[in-house]
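Table S2 (continued). Query chain:
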Amino acid sequence: MAANLDEKAALAQADDAVKSLFQFRDHYFETHGLENARQKASDLDKTLKETLTKLDKLQFCIDNKASYFSLRGKALNVVAEYDSQAVDFLSKAVKLDPSLTEAWNNLGECYWKNKDIDAARNCFMCALAKKRDKVTLRNLSMVLRQIGKDSTEILENVKESVKIAKEAVGQDFSDGRSWFVLGNAYLSLFFAGGQSPSSLKQSMAAYTKAEKDTIERNNPDLHFNRAMAYRYQEEYALALGGFERAALLDPQWEDPRDEKRKLESYLRNTLEYIEGKGKLKAKKLQNLVRSLKPSDAGPYSGSEYTSPAGKTTSITQVMIKNLEREVNTGKVIVGKVAAVIPFENPVPFPFVLVDADMECIGVTVFNLVAGKGFNVGDSIAIPEPYVQETEIKLESGEMLNFKSIRVDNPVVMAVNKRKIGADKLAFSVLSVTNKSD
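Corresponding output:
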């Protein structure tokens, strides 16, 4: 049957077959439901084999081998895993016809899956030289976030990644994948550029736009990365829900379950250490509290406070019980580190603060160098503390309820009567996931 086709018709059928393959992958849950999630990989593999059989039959009618190799390589690239055959076919395609932008993009994605970042970037740059389209732009945004020898270079690349992702969105505001990549870029900027809450908010806004797309709605990467953003916004219920959703969409992927486990463990530990007053013995706790002195407020022992923005206001020392939710303007809390809460993630640094009334509260500090946190017995002063309350019910039925102080800018803190030095400040880098690209 294929032998009777002219080349134009054969190429059209080959292109339709590959498009149908990706349609099957991207819209799988619209026709199969979440209960079939474990079958998706095997179902996709079966559909891929059927597609390759169609391409095998059509190839004899196609003299334009560059286009044929490009389609075959694209088909092989439909799975999440690296495929060396896909690289072989796509390499042949761009060698025969360097103007094939889609082939360059697919080849770059193959190298990305194999963690060959330099080769991936070269492919995307070659594609960009031919056509500045949304697919190439978001691929380049993705790869730029993984390049850099030091924090300065990484930050510049992440900023460029955000800029390029914005350009991709600008080409098609309805494309959920472009919004997803922009969300990832902003999430990376949060870690590379000072852990600014505004970067998290921009990331969340982009993810919300992405989820309106029917394809991205069922993208486990989207739910996982957004859950990470929720985790660092300390919106723990939403974070746990996101990890659960990602795990349901991709049951073979261990990371969502692992992150959910770590977060639940962290929340339990936080409550235990706050309620247990750092798990210190009564005598040690009493001695710790007795050692508190008014001078432990350090630079905040007086009646004025100058914010990082240079604004000077009056300030009064208060106890934990006097703190209100959200920003406590004109107040400073002083206490001792009763315990460092066990944690597996590098950000933030969590500890329990106890005041002169022996009342405890959790504290999370961002932008600290790993290993440069605080020790039990250190005196801590936090001006204008931001207080939030966590109320969450775990899947097990456990109810967790505790208050905590979030410190985004540790330079305002006084530790053992002195402001934190620059040697303790650092920006962390998070690798967001983009497995499905």
